[in-house]
Design goal:
- By secondary structure, this protein is mainly α.
- It has 13 helices and no strands.
- The radius of gyration is 20 Å and the shape is elongated.
């Protein structure tokens, strides 16, 4: 970031320099400043397709999927074979409830990168929304096989098994997630609801306090 700022201080710079500064700011978690850099890159013209992708990711992080999708559509028009664009579009479409379109995007992403745990996990989440639970579980299993410490995949699998009434298996998945990341709030919260529904009130209410986080 310091290097990009020095470059920009020397005089007019290309859209790519502003984009790269924005990418560095994103890595530092400074998304508001990153968005300003990406906007500047677009103002200058000839910004790389990744600028639209990065803006889309920021909007997704802000729970604004419609704006994210608009950015990702622009990225897709400029780069038809970018796996990350298809992946993020799938996430945005899922958030908008457009599940069939989301599934098509994630399937396309997998044709480009068939060993991505994140894509398999996202695909499983979409299949769960489509009431295709067994296929969803298969995706979560593939995600874990590719990345054994994928807490999100374990938690998603647990929630799916809970909905299917397979409570013992769901508890094992929750415990696997929490063994990896003991303070994962989503896993603790979801496990609390299952434990309470099974009548274990003492443990359930203790876990339920994750709501405060």
């Amino acid at each position: 970031l310091a290097s990009y700022e020095r470059a920009l201080a020397t005089g007019p710079c290309s859209a790519t320099t502003h984009h790269n500064k924005g990418a560095a700011l994103m890595q530092l978690g400074r998304d508001t400043e990153a968005m300003q850099s990406f906007d500047r890159a677009l103002e200058l013209g000839s910004a790389p397709p990744q600028t639209h992708l990065a803006r889309g990711r920021i909007f997704l992080g802000r729970q604004r999927p419609l704006e994210a999708l608009a950015c990702l559509d622009l990225a897709l028009a400029l780069s038809r074979d970018d796996v990350e664009v298809f992946f993020q579009r799938g996430v945005a479409l899922n958030a908008l409830g457009r599940y069939e379109e989301a599934l098509a995007c994630l399937d396309r992403a997998l044709t480009l990168k068939g060993d991505s745990a994140e894509i398999f996990n996202a695909r499983g989440a979409v299949l769960e929304r489509l009431d295709r639970s067994e296929e969803a579980l298969d995706c979560f299993a593939k995600a874990v096989a590719l990345k054994p410490d994928h807490v999100g995949a374990y938690t998603n699998a647990a929630n799916t098994r809970t909905a299917l009434g397979r409570f013992d298996e769901a508890l094992r998945d929750f415990d696997a997630a929490l063994k990896i990341t003991p303070d994962d709030t989503k896993a603790i919260w979801s496990k609390s609801l299952l434990v309470l529904s099974l009548g274990n009130l003492r443990q359930g209410w203790q876990l339920y306090e994750s709501r405060l986080r």
